[in-house]
Amino acid sequence: MKIVFIQFLQYVVKKHTAFGLEYAHDTCRSHTGKTDAMSNIMAVLLNGIAQLEYDRDTLLPDHQTRYLDKMDAKMDEGIYLGDRTIRQPDLNQRTQFAAANLAHAINTNDESIAAAMCSYLAIRLPELKQVRIEDNGDEFFIELVFDEEYKKQVAVEFTHLH
Fold first, then answer.
1. 40 DSSP assignment
2. Selection from 64, 58, 56, 65 nearest residue 150 by Cα
3. What is the mean pLDDT of residues 91-104?
4. Residue ranges per domain, the chain?
5. Which residues touch 17 (CB under 8 Å, ≥6 apart)?
6. Nearest 5°: phi and psi at 147?
7. Is 12 left (phi over 0), alpha (psi -120 to 50) or beta?
8. Residues 137-156: what's their mean pLDDT?
9. Please, which residues bridge with residue 142 across strands?
10. Angle between the N-to-C axes of helices 91-107 and 111-124, in degrees from 0 to 180, rounded to the nearest 10
11. Residue 35: is its pLDDT beyond 80?
């Protein structure tokens, strides 16, 4: 399985695992102080269906902020991205690493890691509006969207037709 980044990142990486750090969190939230409510939501979509919504207007608890700082400290030691080790990753490489781990976590139903990676991307990339992941079985295609607001999805109830 490999992950292909399109649009912003233009980079291919292989599927890999996240950090061995504990993270107890079932929703993604942070705070940026922006005033436009719509621009404060970042969404993660898998095959067009929302998986996570991150509300930047809600304050992230201290223990979760510390977890994200631990992630950065761990990445300072180097990350494995694709088939190579990057000793001093820049923001772009850290973003690729977090997005790949987010896709992997969603694919394996690891809610705590998915929430952590969602938080990381939303906080480190405050202009990010959407993470679109397409899974075709063999590859993940990940697109980071900065110029299109997420519009909340609404469930439509169908009545039985005869």
1. G
2. 56
3. 94
4. 2-145
5. 101, 104
6. -115, 10
7. beta
8. 83
9. 5, 133
10. 150
11. no
Nearest Cα to 99, choosing from 75, 116, 76?
116
- The CA distance from 56 to 48, in Å, is 22
Other beta carbons within 10 Å of 72:
12
- Count other Cβ atoms within 10 Å, centred on residue 53: 18
Contacts of 35 (CB under 8 A, 6+ apart): none
**Average pLDDT score, the chain:** 78
Q: What are phi and psi of 74, to 5 degrees?
A: -65, -40
Q: Are 100 and 108 in contact (CB under 8 A)?
A: no
Antiparallel, parallel or unpaired: β 28-29 and 12-14: unpaired
Amino acid identity for residue 38 in this structure: M
Q: Print burial letters for 102-133: b (CB count within 10 Å at least 16), e (below 16).
A: bbbbbeeebbbbbbbbbbbbbbebeebbbbbb
Scan for tokens 């510390």, then name that residue: 66
* Cross-strand pairs, 25: none
Cα 26 from Cα 111, distance rounded (Å): 7
**Residue 28 CB neighbour total at 10 angstroms:** 26
